[in-house]
Amino acid sequence: QVQLVESGGGLVQAGGSLRLSCAGSGRTFRWDAMAWFRQAPGKEREFVASITYSGDSTRYADSAKGRFAISRDNTKNTLYLQMNSLKPEDTAVYYCAAKPGRDSYEYWGQGTQVTVSS
Questions:
Q1: CA distance readout (Å), 27 to 4, 19, 37, 93, 114
Q2: Reduced to 3 states, what is the DSSP secondary structure of residue 19?
Q3: Strand pairing report for 46-51 and 58-60
Q4: Among 96, 85, 104, which Cα is nearest to 12's?
Q5: CA atoms of 56 and 59, how far apart (whole Å)
Q6: Read out DSSP for 47-103?
Q7: pLDDT tens, position by position, for the chain (118 residues)?
Q8: With CB atoms counted within 10 Å of each terminal CB, which end of the chain scores lower, N or C?
């Protein structure tokens, strides 16, 4: 069974940091582009950051630039998101996703809740 499992979410005060992890199992994700998305209550899911299969190129939403860092360890089949200087508006469920081809993200995790208090 192919799975992506996020962890590392929680409750943090504004200005704090969290590191999210996304562990893959059931297949290797080392050749897949991967990304983080988030969905706040009452809002649509939005892109946060992505990384190429090799890790040599990353892309960020404007809201994440300068505060978040996406990385991966292909030896561990794991994706990370380091989040610093967190703001209340970062409160959301965070999802990791993998894109085996060029078109769409086919594999999704179940999400991890991040809550930032003011």
A1: 10, 23, 21, 24, 27
A2: strand
A3: antiparallel
A4: 85
A5: 11
A6: EEEEE-TTSS-EEE-TTTTTTEEEEEETTTTEEEEEE-S--GGG-EEEEEEEESSSS
A7: 999 999 999 999 999 999 999 999 999 999 999 999 999 999 999 999 999 999 999 999 999 999 999 999 999 999 999 999 999 999 999 999 999 988 899 999 999 999 999 9
A8: N
